[in-house]
What we know:
With 515 residues, the chain is α+β, with helices and mostly antiparallel strands. The protein has helices at 2-12, 28-48, 53-71, 92-110, 113-118, 120-132, 138-142, 151-163, 166-173, 177-191, 199-215, 271-286, 318-324, 330-346, 381-386, 401-404, 418-434, 445-453, 470-479, 490-500, 504-513; strands at residues 73-76, 79-82, 233-234, 241-242, 246-253, 256-263, 296-300, 307-311, 359-361, 367-369. The protein has four domains: 25-158, no CATH class; 164-217, no CATH class; 218-313, Phosphorylase Kinase, domain 1, CATH 3.30.200.20; 319-369 and 393-515, Transferase(Phosphotransferase) domain 1 (Transferase(Phosphotransferase), domain 1), CATH 1.10.510. The strands form three sheets. Strands 3, 4, 5, 6, 7 and 8 form a six-stranded antiparallel sheet that branches. Strands 1-2 form a two-stranded antiparallel sheet. β7 and β8 (307-311) form a beta hairpin. The N and C termini lie far apart (70 Å). Mean pLDDT is 84; it is low at 8-14 and 376-393.
Amino acid sequence: MIGRIRRLYRHNRSDVDLYGLPRTPRSRREELCVTLTSIKTHCDELTKKGLFTKSTKAILHICEGLAIKYWDIFPWNGSYLHNSPLAPTVPDAANRWYEQINILFERWSSWTVVEALMRREVIWEGFREMYSKCPYREARNMVSSFPVCSLIEDATVAVHHVLSHKVHVEAVLSLNGPQAADWIYLLDHVMHRLSVTNQLYTTALFTLRKLCASAGKLPDSYMISAEERNGLKIMGKYPTAFGGFADIWRGQYRAQDVAVKALRVSGRDKLQAVEKMFFKEVVLWKNLRHDNITPFIGVDRKLFPCAMVSVWMPHGNIVAYLGKFPEAARLQLLLDVATGLEYLHSFGIVHGDLKGANILIDSEHRARLADFGLTAMTHDLHALNAITPLSIVGSLRWTAPEVLDPESAGLEKARPSKASDVYSLGLVMWEVFAGHVPFHQYPLEANVLYRVLAGARPARPNAARHGLSDSVWEWMQRCWDAEASRRPRIADVVSFLRDENVPLHHKEILSLLFE
């Protein structure tokens, strides 16, 4: 160790070399030490950005391994030194190989992480070329296989880096044309590798959502085909149902029953106005996976201008279901609804159109939320003017006062919120127990609007045998409080309903056990 320190001291003197001899022109090994140091610096810059860390480290490992084996060159304090003056000189082929790696690493490290990811195919081919052109067979033994992973896998860390920095996210959102399309592809593939509990998943979701809307493009994986074998086919000549802004068709896709919700676009010239909001909401729905959310399959642009395809719910909406099964467990269904809403809120997503008609019942008799995808259109004038609605105010009976009259609530414009969702949930609870839409005694919605803004709420229905206890009624009233700040959080509503679904005899046993 003392001898190495002395050699390093001599090396730092300007008049002598590493071994105390008069300094001569730089040898091949000294040049390689400098080149290796430069490669290591660029490698650190690439890995700091998360750029192809596995492949970068594999190439660096080969470079260092060969230098140690053939020329007695070792890493030392951030640089490289050669220990023995008797080691062989560096051949021209090896020297050129190292220089080429240094040039490539230097070029790649000068790019921003967003630029590098857009040129990932170029970088990937560069890695392959470096590995294949290595003049020493030992390189094959130093790395078990190359590439060490797939391109998308090695790019994932870099995408994480982008999503963790505001300046990079802004750079992605400023892209257009083929560059935007490339990032849409990249985000779509990377999201499949992220856990939904990861905070980056939410960032990736909303980045993809905004980029799709601005670029006017959806990921190719979202599109379904009517031309492939077992592709999308519409069953029947007429829609099975009519929504406020869309027609619902029953269809089949890959031998599975599906629901096709086709927007009523009033003309081809209006399609572009609808697409921006349509793309935003499609991206959200596609990436939501929960037992109480209607499963989304994909988008159809062949049979209809804008259509969303989802799994067919055999029991229809919750209102129709309770008509067929009046003894169904209403509190369990409401727990399903609240749990699905809690899931949406965990992503910062507001449903905005919660009502009985938008709650579907699956084959397992469980409730699933639907139709949150088109909510934003009802609050976007450009999109609204481009759609042919049957009823613009069809959800008014479930809508919170601050959304109906934002000025009185001190708001600049009508904007659904988590609190307004909880208000709507309170009215859904009433609807489930009463078997009617709220204010069913007033057919004119203008009359309903006046009464809601005046503070009127539905009277308590006679539904004790269906589970409407005093405590449930109290929570319904808390949910539809006129003051948004006084309404409970959805997590508290879920907790209450979960407790209410515990049978009385189980509560008595638990009470005994915890005394």
